[in-house]
Write a structure and sequence with these properties.
Elements: E1 2-8, H1 16-25, E2 29-34, E3 39-44, H2 49-52, E4 58-63
Antiparallel strand pairs: 1-3, 1-4, 2-3
Length: 77
């Protein structure tokens, strides 16, 4: 499963919950729906990722970046 962030286009912001439901039916596990900014975050199996681009209202699909800091006792900070 890959983490993804989906941006909803301006014409579908008022229907973001419907877009999220369609993404779920397309195989995405939705973690958050941020209706104020038009973003839906979650994860999707690699073989289903391309389907997300076909959902009506989806402007873009981007991989979620993962950041890991070294432990506090690490010599490099």
């Amino acid at each position: 499963m890959a983490g993804v962030t989906v941006t909803v286009d301006d014409t579908h912001l008022d229907k973001i919950e419907e877009v999220a439901a369609h993404l779920r039916r397309s195989g995405m596990h939705v973690d958050q729906v941020l209706s104020e900014i038009g973003v839906i975050s979650g994860s999707v199996p690699d073989d289903r990722r391309q389907l997300l681009h076909t959902v009506t209202g989806v402007q873009s699909v981007e991989d979620t970046a993962t950041v890991q800091l070294p432990p506090p006792e690490s010599p490099v900070q």
